[in-house]
Amino acid sequence: MTATPSSGAGGPAGTATTAERCLRTVLVVDDSRLQRRLLSMLLGRAGYRVMEADSGEAALALCRQAPPDLVVSDWMMPGMSGIDLCRALRALATGRYVYFILLTSRSEKAEVAHGLDCGADDLLTKPVDAAELRARLAAGERILRMERELSEKNRLISQTLAELQAAQAMLDADLQQARKIQESLVPERTRRFGESEVNLLFQPCGQVGGDLVGAFSPGYGTLGIYAIDVSGHGVTSALMAARVSGYLSSEFLDQNVAVTRRFERFFALRPPAEVARLLNERLAADRGVEEYFTMVYATVDLRSGRVRLVQAGHPHPMILRADGRREFIGQGGLPVGLLPEARFEEIEARLAPGDRLLLHSDGFTEAQLPDGSLLGDEGLGELVARVTPERSGRTFLDELLGHLRQATGTGMAAEDDISAALLDYRG
């Protein structure tokens, strides 16, 4: 087997074509030395780098070492024929496509079809016409150029996809950790405050959410309970929710804006309207923060059952009376952080032993039913009526969530965060 370097094509008009073709290698395979030399001469003048092989076996060995761009092979050869070489070449894992031209003295359609079926890209009838050979090779070059461009684009796409997958894996890991941190904001689903009990429900629609529920007590028979829904979804809302949770911390009352110190000796709860005003001022002071949140915040005197409540754009709280009656309370109001000078009004209610106070997010009332309508307050009341009244607070919320999923047909999925805080008042 021999290899012959290309001989460039002269003339200014052919310079670009020659430079381009010098990048292409053609393997000429023929058991006739004269035929090989003739083809090599034609290809060398056309600007190709030429390799020669005197048999199919020798050509296959060359292809294993350094695959050419194009192969021009005789069909009929002793030992491995051109068809056999073509099949073997296609089976090689060369990592690049090789354009294969078969030379044959036959011109029958059946023979042409058979050659193409075996993997050949083109057939050329002997004796070879120089102009036709150059034209067939030029066509092969166009196909190779498109194939190489496509392969490069696929490589770049695969590389980019791998980078995106790696970035997504890192993001998922971060979101998983963020979810754990956010779940730590609601460390206890059930908390006792004297004889009364508060149960919390938090189900984000994604890995993290913008809802927040909680309760705290400075002692002395008083309780603060809240439900918050930050505008938007995802990481930004979750960050805002985490920040707001620090303003209403149950662990560090000295940092809780809803609590004030009295006589340097004990803590007391601020009025709900004042808490909403303080939170609104803090959000208004943060430059560049466009998020706002809706909120229901209530203070409860656990001895008398007196409830003082502010509703800042949040869905209406519900009182579930011990005798089975259901009452929606509240006057609406503006969300916190929407307007710097927003004013917030309080309302009052009274709980009797055995009554329940339910604070919930719009993940309940704005849940979409199969007919396209929203559940609304009336629909939520109907879901509450389906829950067995004797259920414990925690079981009550779990069963209520199950009825919601059944009504919407969403199963475990939800389009919005779902949260609730339930106070079982026992006097």
UniProtKB/TrEMBL annotation:
For this UniProt record, the keywords arranged alphabetically read as follows: Coiled coil, Hydrolase, Phosphoprotein
Sites of the modification 4-aspartylphosphate? 74
Enumerate the spans annotated as Response regulatory domain. Answer: 25-141
Gene3D superfamilies given in the database record: 3.40.50.2300, PPM-type phosphatase domain
Query: Coiled-coil regions in this chain?
Result: 143-181
Which GO MF terms are attached to this record? phosphatase activity
Q: Which InterPro entries match?
A: Bact_Sigma-Reg (IPR052016), CheY-like_superfamily (IPR011006), PPM-type-like_dom_sf (IPR036457), PPM-type_phosphatase-like_dom (IPR001932), Sig_transdc_resp-reg_receiver (IPR001789)
Q: Does the keyword Phosphoprotein apply?
A: yes
Q: Which domain of life is it from?
A: Bacteria
What's any GO biological process attached to this entry? phosphorelay signal transduction system
A Pfam family annotated for this UniProt entry: Response_reg
Kindly provide the name given to this protein in its UniProt entry: Fused response regulator/phosphatase
> What is the species of this protein?
Rhodosalinus halophilus
